[in-house]
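Risk register update: the risk of archive-format incompatibility is retired. Evidence:
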Amino acid sequence: MPIRSHRPLIAVSMVVLAVAAACGDNPNKPKNSNDPAAIAVTSGQGQVGMPGVTLPAPIVARVTNAKGNALANTPVTFTVTRGSGIVASTMVTTDANGQASTSWTLGDGSVRQLLSVSAGKASQVATARVDTTRLIYLSVPDTAKVGDTLHVWTSVGLAGAPGEAWGSLLSIIGWSDTSYVKALSYSRADTRMEFFNVFGQTMRTLQTAASFPENQASNLDGGPRVFALNFLVKQAATGKDVSFTIGSSGLVGARTFTDLRSAAGTAVGATVHIR
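Archived output:
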């Protein structure tokens, strides 16, 4: 009686085992681990508030793993990256639903403010804006590059205020480092404006008084632009954040603008990232 070979069955079995092993080692297969794979800001995004005042809604973030399941007991870090505001807690552990939250108080460093929210290698950004309707503030682009002429506009939020927008703006503008930017010149939103200015001893501040007769020049940030200081961005600023501040500001009223002095009592600076 001939002996039958069983090698084909052995070969098939080896193939099946190899395929099973390969499936088990698939690096793309989602794993139900405790490692954060994603974080999302689920509440509190895009609020508008005032410097020094806590936003009405907390910033809430949800952390998930590679399968999309919520991760409990995971530390979440909240870091202000633009605007010089503060948070109530810089690190919060997620609850059973994978959520962590903190309150955010806006600063006076920028109209547009940013808060980084991270867990492990996953991160997200929450944004907020300062209400400019009753402020003196600086209006600048978010980014610039070496060699650009940077226009740092001084603006006054007078939307809805009674009377005529006649008067003068008294302000001191400063910038963070003379090795990053060089002051060049002034721009005015109205050719009828007049300047009276004095450079500071360190050449990092400028005290200015500018009159603005019925100045309603367009401004995306929500108020009339009054004047700009123009700066040349230097090579040393590459990759840096250049900060501009506005302080000791005041409005002096005239004509029928009854609340010109009190309409904009808080000054807000600005930060520009140099690419």
